[in-house]
Amino acid sequence: MPMDWIMGLAGGLLIGGAAALFLLVNGRIMGASGIVGGLVDGSGRHDWHERAALIAGLISVPAVAATMLGGAQTYLTTNWAVIIIAGLLVGVGTRLANGCTSGHGVCGISRLSLRGIVATAFYIGAGGLTVVIFKHALGVI
Amino acid sequence: MRVIVSFLVGGLFGLGLLVSGMTDTTKVQGWLDVFGNWDPTLAFVMGGAIVPMAIAWRLTQGRKPVLADAFPAPPEPRLGRNLVIGSTLFGMGWGLAGLCPGPAIASLSFGGFGGVIFLVAMLAGMLVAPPLRNRLDQQAIAV
């Protein structure tokens, strides 16, 4: 168990380091939902190549690393209805809130942004409640 | 040059997500499962990510980005209804599947068909968000 925590901390430092690099060099906030969402709805058309490059790195580096580590798994549920509903909720919610775990969580909290702190409190609260209801009460997940 | 930096940032981000275990949905759901077998790993990930970023925000004071004209504007002080509604919807989806946008993309190569379906649904959700936001804003004005 504590090994997971150490890996969590190490991975967290890499995530924070990536966000710091993006801020200090490109002057941008590393928010996954904003970067992707801007490509989807066209609001990020002017810098699409930077967004596309970031996404390319985000897909390819874990792909190579996972292969080198002997494979990785997400253990995602096989319930299709849950996958589709969850995906829709994550997509709509993060764009409505203008941020997700990386934008509001990592980048927002670290600058003591009230919006980032409130958003994080709400998505963790809603996530916790959802797990209680759908896992323990209904047994769906 | 900015494009190369963007690629490196995405790569580091993805590596961090993989190393930290955040592409493992059971770890994320384990963190949210306060009344079950609670897994505190996510707190270590968040803590580890916030430290370098807090230092970076400090370094922005009185400086300019290396490859840009200005740093992002200070956060908007207004919270607003969309922030609360959106974060709640996001949290529900996050709890159901254990994936948020970053890991959903980072796990594309090994997430299987289910991961692709999740990603497509997420992109569809992102597409309907702007019109929904307009409607919510109009409602807010009407009220």
Describe what you observe in this structure.
The complex is a heterodimer of chains A (141) and B (143). Chain A is globular. The longest helix of chain A is centred in the first third of the chain and has 25 residues, at 2-26. Chain A is 75% helix and 0% strand. Chain A is built from six helices and no strands. Chain A has a domain at 76-141. Chain A has helices spanning 2-26, 32-40, 48-68, 80-97, 101-109, 114-137. Chain B has 143 residues and is mainly alpha-helical. Chain B has one domain (2-142). The longest helix of chain B is centred in the last third of the chain and has 31 residues, at 112-142. Chain B is globular. The relative contact order of chain B is 0.11. Chains A and B meet through helix 1, helix 2, helix 3, helix 4 and helix 5 of A and helix 1, helix 2, helix 3, helix 4 and helix 5 of B.
Properties at a glance:
heterodimer, A: about 140 residues, B: about 140 residues, mainly alpha, globular
Quick recap of the structure?
The complex is a heterodimer of chains A (141) and B (143). With 141 residues, chain A is mainly alpha-helical.
Q: Note the main sheet of chain B.
A: none
Shape of chain A: globular
Category by helix and strand content of chain B: mainly alpha
* Quaternary class: heterodimer
Instruction: Output the helix-strand order of chain A.
Output: HHHHHH
Show unreliable segments of chain A: none
Number of strands of chain B: 0
Helical fraction of chain B equals 55-70%
Query: How large a portion of the residues of chain A is in β-strands, by DSSP E?
Result: under 5%
Shape of chain B: globular
Q: Kindly, what is the distance between the CA atoms of the first and last residues of chain A, rounded to a whole number of angstroms?
A: 23 Å
